[in-house]
Amino acid sequence: MDRIFSGIQPTGDLHIGNWLGAVQNWVALQDQFDCIFCVVDLHAVTMPYDAPLLAQRTRDMAIGLLAAGIDPSRAILFVQSAVHQHAELNWLLTTVAPLGELERMTQFKDKTGKLESVPVGLLCYPILQAADILLYRADKVPVGEDQVQHLELTREVARRWNAAFSPESPWFPEPQPLLTPAKRIMGLDGHAKMSKSLGNTLGLMESPDEIWQKLRVAATDPARVTRKDPGTPTLCNVFTLHRYFSTPETVAEVDVKCRTAGWGCLDCKRRLADAMIETFRPIRSRAEELKADPARVDAVLADGAERARAIAVDTLQETRRRMGFFGAS
Ligand code: SF4
After folding, report:
1. Going by DSSP bridges, is the β-strand pair 75-79/140-143 parallel, antiparallel, or unpaired?
2. Ligand 1 contacts CB of residue 238 (under 6 A)
3. What does the pLDDT read at residue 112?
4. CA of 221 to the centre of ligand 1 (A)
5. Which of 104, 109, 195, 257 is within CB 3.0–4.6 Å of 263 for a Cys-Cys bond?
6. Helix, strand, or coil (residue 140)
7. Nearest to residue 188, comparing CAs of 237, 244, 246?
8. Which residue puts its alpha carbon closest to atom 4 of ligand 1?
9. Is the beta carbon of 269 within 6 A of some atom in ligand 1?
């Protein structure tokens, strides 16, 4: 069975952007692949962050994943920093990673624009991603469109390392992208991708009232200035969200009532809020049970780390041996 690796940053509670864009897909993949999922806290520290909150946000993200359907009996779920081999392989891969390509990474350029001083860790972020994937010699990586460039870097690093240290029998596979239907979820401001750092998210664990308060003020088609102005649903993020959360009948109704000004945007948003609240109800309920029992969550993560480490130790040992390290043969 092919192996998959994927990671998610410990941003706290899941929001609909990372749920629709990644985690729903992970849940489905558990039945088809040997899956390894990771809360990537080592990646989170490459940008300024709130150290006192990191551990709790890491646990909260794990709770979100478990509540959303990641099943530790079918997949490995662990926290990246608990398996030290990620950091060690990262270092070994820096020796073959091309500086020019790292500097050209779109995400690097985007993030450095916001910083006065650029930490080296940010530049090396894609090397750590390569280490995450290659440590488990994963065959496939589920990627969104914004991660394709980083996966290509991983493939390049694998090629360069194989050429340098294992030309006869390549050790690292070049992981293939597992392209899934693109779900790039826009934030409630309607301007940019949904992201915690932009403050435009809607969380799965938010209360029904919080969901409604956020949706009430969410951006819509600007042409609907008054209730009598017809709109174009395809220009409205609320309509996009209806397609993920509402029944086909409701989506068709939204389409007609928007175009004919048959209802106001608040009526439309109320229907979306109700659909979302119903969708999230079982996930919220499982998350609340897990939040009440953090020791159980920590035990799941410790078991996941142990299973991940068992694979990582073997990969690193062979990598060190092929690189000629003392004591590795
Ligand atoms: S009626 Fe609904 S789909 Fe149309 S602009 Fe308003 S919120 Fe958007």
Report:
1. unpaired
2. yes
3. 86
4. 6
5. 257
6. strand
7. 237
8. 258
9. yes
For residue 159, the SS3 value is helix
Q: Name the residue type at position 123.
A: L
Catalytic residues: 111, 193, 196
Cβ atoms of residues 321 and 329 within 8 Å: yes
Mean pLDDT per 10-residue segment, the chain (329 residues):
95 91 94 97 94 96 97 98 98 96 89 86 95 97 82 96 96 91 81 86 95 96 91 95 96 96 96 97 97 97 98 98 93
Residue with tokens 């809020």: 273
Task: Determine contact, residues 125/107, Cβ cutoff 8 Å.
Answer: yes
Q: What is the pLDDT of residue 273?
A: 97
CA 318 to chain centre: 29
Q: Do the beta carbons of residue 127 and residue 90 sit within 8 Å? A: yes
Question: What phi and psi, each to the nearest 5 degrees, are found at residue 39?
Answer: -90, 115
Q: What is the pLDDT of residue 46?
A: 92
Instruction: Identify the CA nearest to 279 among candidates 14, 5, 8, 4.
Output: 14
Question: Separation of 255 CA from ligand 1 center, angstroms?
Answer: 8
For ligand 1, say whether the CB of 237 is within 6 Å of any of its atoms. Answer: no
> Each residue of 244-301: pLDDT tens digit?
999 999 999 999 999 999 999 999 999 999 999 999 999 999 999 999 999 999 999 9
What the block records as the tokens of 111 is: 């993030």
Find the 61 Cα to ligand 1 centroid distance in Å.
Answer: 32
How far is CA 242 from its chain centroid? 22
- CB of residue 304 inside a 6 A radius of ligand 1: no
Distance 258 CA to ligand 1 centre (A): 5
